[in-house]
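The following block was generated as part of the benchmark described in Methods. Ligand: flavin mononucleotide.
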Amino acid sequence: MKTAIIYTTKYGSVKKCAEILKEKTGGNADTYNLQESPDIRLEDYDTIILGASVYVGRIQKEMVDFCLKNNTLLILKRIGLFVCAGEKSEKKYEYLKLFRENILNISISNKVFGDEIYYEKLNLLEKITLFILKGVRKSYSNLDSEAIDEFVTDLDLLKGH
Ligand SMILES: Cc1cc2nc3c(=O)[nH]c(=O)nc-3n(C[C@H](O)[C@H](O)[C@H](O)COP(=O)(O)O)c2cc1C
C-alpha cells in the first residue's frame, strides 16, 4: 500500500503542503515535484495525491497535462486532490475541476488547503495582479490545517495506506 504525492508549485506553498502530508503519514509516502521529475511509476502506488496551486484561475500546465496523459490509470487509484488557493468563497471548489472532472468525481478526498504569499519572490506583474485581485502587498501564510487534517482522515493516511 504505497502513496505518491505528486505536485506542482510556483513558490513553494504546495510543496510545503506535500511535506506536511508526508509527515502525517509517518514518512510513508513518496513526494514528486512534477516540474522536476515527470517520470513516475504510477503502477507502484495504490494511493495517489495530486496537488497544485491556482494562479488567475488556472493550475500549472504540467499538472493539467499529467492528468490528461495518465487519466486511464489515475481513475483506477485511490485519489486525493488538493489545491492551494486564496479564494474564500464557494467558488474555490470549482478549482478542483481543473484536475479533470472524472478524476475529481472518483476522488476519495478533495480539498482547498488555503494559501501562502511569498511577496518578495513575486515578479512585478504578479505583484500588480495580486493587488488587483486581493488588495494584498505583503507575505502571509493562511493554510487551512483543518482541511489538511480532514484530507488525511478521509484518505486514511495515518494508517499508512
Ligand atoms: C499573481 C497571483 C495570482 C493568483 N491568483 C489566484 C486565483 O486566481 N485564485 C486563487 O484562489 N488564488 C490565487 N492566488 C493565490 C495562490 O494560489 C497562492 O498564493 C498559493 O499558495 C500559491 O502556491 P505556490 O506557492 O505553491 O505556487 C494568486 C497568487 C498570485 C501571486
